[in-house]
Structure formats: structure tokens, C-alpha cells
Design a protein that fits this description.
8-stranded mixed sheet, Aspartate Aminotransferase, domain 1, globular, about 425 residues, 2 domains, alpha/beta, about 15% strand
């Protein structure tokens, strides 16, 4: 496939945009080469500046569960645009949208709309601190919650420890208020809580991880985290920015029957536009200004275009067969596992519902430590082989891939054939 135009555009972008991209993972740094510059998309396909067509499993990083450019969502958006783009004032549609989300997600009595997942998690953490009057937050290693200063930290030796910054510009004071625990390690979590008893405001985690690749919670892990946080008056925050409305109509909490105090949503609820929300128990949410003293604001929060796209998406999702979507993804992953097994390559495939990651590691991937055993060089070769065969995967070993309602059985079969092509080439070498 020719990629000359994309390469030219990347060089131009690097002159006026840091690194040539407006979000780091888009730069293809972990797989080498330069990124695709996309021009349009429809259904399960994207089309680049060189007029190449690709089956897409990035799906705007999970936001487009219906597929690209869903006609009903576009129709509703065009109607909304004729009335204006942003008012900086309340609209009736915000109420309809908020009620729909509250009805679908068990933990949410009230919610506040914002414009990004990062803004949602940042605000939820501030709210947890304001509500409890405590400062420390627990996060789990490998769980990414947006570019929030206090969450850009990692664990030290994997034992209970204070965080250390993984980005310049994060102050030592903020890092010291962030406690980091390995995912799926309930004994270490319990030890952290005991060591810092009385000073922990909140605990935030992805109930199903998508930001170290797909990692599932082990049996009893979420339940025990909920039990401990409830006992110690720690606000439990589920980051469902990726998982919200991905596996069922509602949050993954609907499936696990574990109810947090606060939930952060994004991606799917915006229908492809910048939209997110955080919500939870009424007594906690009532601490937010103007009713309470925890301040949070945003000029474009709940803007009519984002709300229109999100509302249209949720209305469609109410009618969709999530079981069939999961079965389609299961069939795809079964095919990938078969050809990878036949190749003799070391791999581990994790899937939950319509979200999956192929890790090039012999280990069972259960946390960030095991995820880091993956062979990222092999992943880079896999990525480029698939791309050359018309399959657009996440350009990083440590990201999720997404199957949408728009992917067909033929799309999945083509993806398995492309994987077989990669395995054949790898074997020949």
C-alpha cells in the first residue's frame, strides 16, 4: 500500500504540532514508522489520505461501538447544527440525556457532564477528596485514567509504596498522595489500606482494564475491593470511560453486580464527539458547586452537539443485541488463536465482550507486570503486516482493539486470514 501522502502530512504536522500528533499514541512510536492520516470512515472501515481502505479495530479508541458515521447519529447531528453549536447555557436535551444514563448505570443517581474522560476522572477524584476531607488516592498499576497530574504515577517494586511520577511536570507532592497497587492483587491492596488507614479519600480503577491491553479482574477481586473501601469509608470510583455501554446497555458494573460510589463515563456516550460524565450517589454529587463547595466547570460541558450524538447513540444501543456482538468478537478471537497457535508463536489473547488484545507473551496476562513480558518487537511486525493487508489495529501492544456492531462476519474472517499471512511470513523468516 502506498503511504506517501500520510508520510508527507506527518512531516508537515511535526513542524507545528509537538511530535506531529495531538495525542501521543497516534505517533506510532511503539511500532515504528509514521501514522496514517485518515480522511473519512464508514461502518467498519477507515480511509487514509492515500486512498487506502482498512478494516478498523481502533474505532476511535473504543468510542464508536456502532461503527463509523452511523447514519441516524449523523442525521440527528445535522438537525442539531442547524439550531446552533454551543450556547453556554442549559438545554432540555441535557436532562433527557442525564436521565437516560442514570437509568442505565446502577451507581448513578446524579451526574455532571464534561468534555473528556480525563476531565471526568480528574473531577471525580477532586470530589472524593472534597467529600471525605482526605487527600490520598489509590490507583492500580497499568490503569490509565487520562493525563491527570496525580494519576501519572507508577508502582515501585510492586509492593505497597508511594507513587513516583512517570511524567515531567508532576509535582512530588501530588505523586506522594497517590498510592499504587498491582491490579488483581487484593493482599497488597489490603496492606496499603491498613498502612494509610484514615487518610485515603478514594480508590479509582478500571473494572476491566483496557489501557495495558485487555486485562480482566480475577474472581472476587472487584467484590473484595468494594468490601474493603466500603468498610474504610473510601470512595470507590469505577473508570468506565472505555467499558461504559461497551458490553451491555449500561456499565460493566451491571454485569459484575459490583456498585461503586462514583462512575466515570466517556467515549461511547459521546457518539464520536467530545463528551464524558461522572456521577454517583446523590449525597456525594450534591457536594459539587453550585450546590456544594467542590468546584468544577466547563464552557462546553453538555453542549448540544455532543449531547445529541450521545443521546442518539444510546437510543440505538437500547435496541442492539450485545450478546451477538460478543459472540462475533469471540469467533474472531477463536480464529486468531487458532492461527497463532499453529504458528508456534508465544502469545496470550485476552478478551472481554467485544474488546480484545493479542499479547506476544507465554505468560497469562493478569496485571501490568505480566503484560510487560510481551515481545513488543514481534507486536510491531504483527501490526505492520496486518496494516499492509488492510487491517488497522491499535498501534501499541498495550492497547485494546474493539469490534463494533458494524463489523461483519466477512470482516472477521478477513482479519483471521491476514493474521495467518503474518504467521506464514514470520515462520519463513
Amino acid at each position: 500500500m502506498k503511504r506517501k501522502r500520510s508520510e508527507q502530512l506527518f512531516k508537515q504536522a511535526a513542524c507545528c504540532i509537538p511530535g506531529g500528533v495531538n495525542s501521543p499514541v497516534r505517533a506510532f512510536a511503539s511500532v515504528g514508522g509514521s501514522p496514517l492520516f485518515l480522511e473519512r470512515a464508514r461502518g467498519s472501515r477507515v480511509f487514509d489520505a492515500d486512498r487506502n481502505s482498512y478494516l478498523d479495530y481502533v474505532m476511535s479508541w473504543g468510542a464508536l461501538v456502532l461503527g463509523h458515521a452511523h447514519p441516524l447519529v449523523l442525521t440527528k447531528l445535522k438537525q442539531a447544527m442547524d439550531k446552533g453549536t454551543s450556547f453556554g447555557a442549559p438545554t432540555e436535551k441535557e436532562i433527557v440525556f442525564a436521565r437516560k444514563i442514570c437509568a442505565a448505570v446502577p451507581s448513578i443517581d446524579k451526574l455532571r457532564m464534561v468534555s473528556s474522560g480525563t476531565e471526568a476522572t480528574m473531577s471525580a477524584i477532586r470530589l472524593a477528596r472534597g467529600y471525605t476531607g482526605k487527600d490520598k488516592i489509590i490507583k492500580f498499576e497499568g490503569c490509565y485514567h487520562g493525563s491527570v497530574d496525580s494519576l501519572l504515577v507508577k508502582a515501585g517494586s510492586g509492593q505497597a509504596t508511594l507513587g513516583i511520577p512517570t511524567s515531567l511536570g508532576v509535582s512530588k507532592a501530588l505523586a506522594e498522595d497517590t498510592l499504587v497497587c498491582p491490579y488483581n492483587d487484593i493482599s497488597t491492596f489490603r496492606a496499603i489500606v491498613e498502612k494509610h488507614r484514615g487518610s485515603i479519600a478514594g480508590c479509582i480503577l478500571e473494572p476491566v482494564c483496557g489501557n495495558m491491553g485487555v486485562v480482566l479482574p480475577e474472581d472476587g477481586f472487584l467484590e473484595q475491593v468494594r468490601e474493603i473501601t466500603a468498610k474504610e469509608n473510601i470512595v470507590l470510583i469505577f473508570d468506565e470511560v472505555i467499558t461504559g455501554f461497551r458490553f451491555c446497555y449500561g456499565g460493566v458494573q451491571n454485569i459484575f453486580k459490583v456498585i461503586p460510589d462514583l462512575t466515570c463515563l466517556g467515549k461511547i456516550i459521546g457518539g464520536g464527539l467530545p463528551c464524558a460524565a461522572y456521577g454517583g450517589k446523590e449525597e456525594i454529587m450534591d457536594c459539587i458547586a453550585p450546590q456544594g463547595s467542590v468546584y468544577q466547570a466547563g464552557t462546553l460541558s453538555g453542549n448540544p452537539l455532543a449531547v445529541t450524538a450521545g443521546l442518539a447513540t444510546l437510543e440505538i444501543l437500547e435496541t442492539m443485541d450485545y450478546k451477538a456482538l460478543a459472540e462475533k468478537a469471540a469467533g474472531l478471537c477463536l480464529g486468531l488463536e487458532q492461527v497463532l497457535s499453529d504458528s508456534g508463536l508465544a502469545f496470550s489473547l485476552n478478551r472481554f465482550g467485544s474488546m480484545f488484545t493479542v499479547f506476544f507473551s507465554r505468560e497469562k496476562i493478569r496485571d501490568f507486570s505480566s503484560a510487560k513480558t510481551s515481545d513488543t518487537v514481534i507486536y510491531g511486525k504483527y501490526f505492520w503486516s496486518m496494516l499492509e493487508q488492510g487491517i488497522n489495529l491499535a498501534p501499541s501492544q498495550f492497547e485494546a482493539n474493539f469490534v463494533s456492531f458494524s463489523h461483519s462476519r466477512e470482516d472477521c474472517e478477513a482479519t483471521v486470514r491476514a493474521c495467518a499471512g503474518f504467521c506464514l511470513k514470520h515462520k519463513e523468516k
